[in-house]
Amino acid sequence: MRHYEVIFMVHPDQSEQVPAMVERYTTLVTEAQG
């Protein structure tokens, strides 16, 4: 199995939204069995 690293950049004005973004992407990958 290959392992990938995901990096995303967030504008400083949106830094408060980072936990929600991480949760959203984690859910997407988990549901897709990635």
Question: Gist?
Answer:
The chain has 34 residues and is an all-alpha fold. 41% of the residues lie in helices and 0% in strands.
Structural overview:
- The protein is an all-alpha fold and 34 residues long.
- 41% of the residues lie in helices and 0% in strands.
- The chain contains one helix and no strands.
- It has one helix at residues 18-31.
Describe the structure using short key phrases.
single chain, 34 residues, mainly alpha, 1 helix, 41% helix
| Overall geometry | elongated
Number of strands: 0
Assess the beta-strand content as a share of residues.
Answer: under 5%
Low-confidence runs of at least 5 consecutive residues:
none
In terms of quaternary structure, the protein is single chain
Summing up helix and strand content along with how strands pair, one would put the structural category as mainly alpha
Order of helices and strands: H
State the helix count: 1
Main sheet overview: none
> Distance between termini?
10 Å
Radius of gyration: 12 Å
Q: What average pLDDT do the residues reach?
A: 89
Helix share, percent: 40-55%
